[in-house]
Description:
Strand content: 5-15%
CATH superfamily: NAD(P)-binding Rossmann-like Domain
Bound molecules: NADP nicotinamide-adenine-dinucleotide phosphate
Number of domains: 1
Oligomer: single chain
CATH architecture: 3-Layer(aba) Sandwich
CATH class: Alpha Beta
Amino acid sequence: xxxxxxxxxxxxxxxxxxxxxxxxxxxxxxxxxxxxxxxxxxxxxxxxxxxxxxxxxxxxxxxxxxxxxxxxxxxxxxxxxxxxxxxxxxxxxxxxxxxxxxxxxxxxxxxxxxxxxxxxxxxxxxxxxxxxxxxxxxxxxxxxxxxxxxxxxxxxxxxxxxxxxxxxxxxxxxxxxxxxxxxxxxxxxxxxxxxxxxxxxxxxxxxxxxxxxxxxxxxxxxxxxxxxxxxxxxxxxxxxxxxxxxxxxxxxxxxx
Length: 256
Ligand SMILES: NC(=O)c1ccc[n+]([C@@H]2O[C@H](COP(=O)([O-])OP(=O)(O)OC[C@H]3O[C@@H](n4cnc5c(N)ncnc54)[C@H](OP(=O)(O)O)[C@@H]3O)[C@@H](O)[C@H]2O)c1
């Protein structure tokens, strides 16, 4: 049986590493994101590494906007009768990705910063998940969210951290609702992960060194560290693990 694995943000960083993980297990991948060329390139790299794996289906759309998310969900529902694993990796800090001027004008800027972070990290996850929750394989389906160490420690301006923290009660409620159907719902909360587009140009060498120094094992996280945890949570071996937030940060949440 070929597992259908849907990955938002599947073209880069943690989402792409998760795609490689599941492709190696022979899954039928569905990669989601806003930029078509990034997804096409990701699918080509997967095909080059794993020529025997089924070709990934790439679907573009802004998952934080209801109409666009509805279109993406509709195409997945047309193509597949069920989804085995849903990995919600799409997200990020809008402050990292924007110019400082974009959010500068007083309370209007503050409102945009908080609203945009909420849309990017909460709505992109909730809209896709709600659109597919009745298609998760029962029993055996797996839903994964990606939060952040920021949900525990803050994110300087609070808005990214608060948006990620909102995924935690959603994890508990959805795990409660879907548990009787044999579907697990868990969240992975990474610390600093290198080789992603998350920080854009905004991570200074000094800040990077500080983040690494806060880990107990004194190294940056990799997308594969997170993908391996997602992969285990998606496996049959993790069938009794649900409603959990699993931190993947080298101990940095408690680091000094
Ligand atoms: N890297 C870290 O240190 C770190 C630490 C903690 C948590 N995280 C979390 O890990 C997750 C994965 O991020 P990453 O680190 O792998 O960074 P990334 O490379 O920037 O990946 C984010 C992905 O999400 C997609 N995306 C963003 N907004 C979207 C939208 N509205 N609709 C659909 N797709 C969207 C992006 O593609 P498009 O731009 O083409 O849409 C991109 O592929 C994020 O939720 C992030 O907050 C990252």
